[in-house]
């Protein structure tokens, strides 16, 4: 609690300010100060009682674009001019979209035909309010902001012509679908255009993490070690496909690897395929 008399002599037009605080015209007092060349604001909540005017400090924070960008990395300006398409917006794709968006990638194009189910929430970036929504739309709405573009479509890539269009329209296409047909179509399109794509996935129930930079035929792609399973895959009611018990922290591990490789490629740095495995 701060007493008004302690601040009164430091404030211009103190009589007018005090009158507004006492009669309820104003309730908050914002005091701008400079400390070691850095500007700050002290926010105070005003209350009156029989003992007089009392001021209580409340939390205040700057909301400028400069402050919002301080923690987004040193390559923000470069990335704002880049565009990335992400094919498959499940566990890996959703968190990858979030990471790239916050790193500053100016345009994201998200592609997935599937809907978000309750069982997906354990590893997905979208929150429970989006259950029943298309996964790509859910993530687009989750991360969308005013200074960056986030687009989405309810599709997975099923033709070479569509793959060619995506490769030609974006600086980089990232496959997070774990679908060999999709990867092959994108690889062919990228090879024709003289570009690379990135494929990122998990295997061995999360113990093998792969971020593959693809610029050639399938015979040159990375391979992972076959490991004994840690446990039995489960089955969700009404779904015939097995569900891997891979936890979120393994997903975030490959997402971190992928985001680093993708941002390096967008900035023109040479980046090799990465395979990280643990037994």
Give the overall pLDDT as a whole number.
88
What is the count of structural domains?
2
Stretches where pLDDT falls below 50 for ≥5 residues?
Answer: none
Radius of gyration, in Å, reads 26 Å
Main β-sheet description: 7 strands, mixed
Per CATH, the architecture of the largest domain is: 3-Layer(aba) Sandwich
Note the beta-strand portion. 25-35%
The separation of the N and C termini measures 57 Å
Strand order of the largest sheet: 7-6-5-8-9-10-13
Q: Percent helix among the residues? A: 25-40%
Which structural category do the helix and sheet elements fall into? alpha/beta
Q: In the CATH hierarchy, what is the superfamily of the largest domain?
A: NAD(P)-binding Rossmann-like Domain
Overall geometry comes to: elongated
What do we call the CATH topology of the largest domain? Rossmann fold
What order do the SSEs take from the amino end to the carboxyl end, as H and E?
A: EHHEEEHHEHEHEHEHEEEEHE
Structure annotation, total helices: 9
List the helices and strands and how they pair.
Layout lengths: L1 E2 H5 L5 H10 L4 E8 L2 E12 L2 E7 L6 H5 L6 H4 L3 E5 L3 H13 L3 E5 L23 H9 L5 E5 L6 H10 L2 E4 L4 H14 L3 E7 L4 E7 L19 E2 L6 E2 L4 H19 L7 E4 L2
Parallel strand pairs: 5-6, 5-8, 6-7, 8-9
Antiparallel strand pairs: 1-4, 2-3, 3-4, 9-10, 10-13, 11-12
Helix pairs in contact: 5-6, 5-9, 7-8
Briefly summarize what is shown.
With 279 residues, the chain is an alpha/beta fold. The chain has helices at residues 4-8, 14-23, 65-69, 76-79, 91-103, 135-143, 160-169, 180-193, 248-266; strands at 2-3, 28-35, 38-49, 52-58, 83-87, 107-111, 149-153, 172-175, 197-203, 208-214, 234-235, 242-243, 274-277.
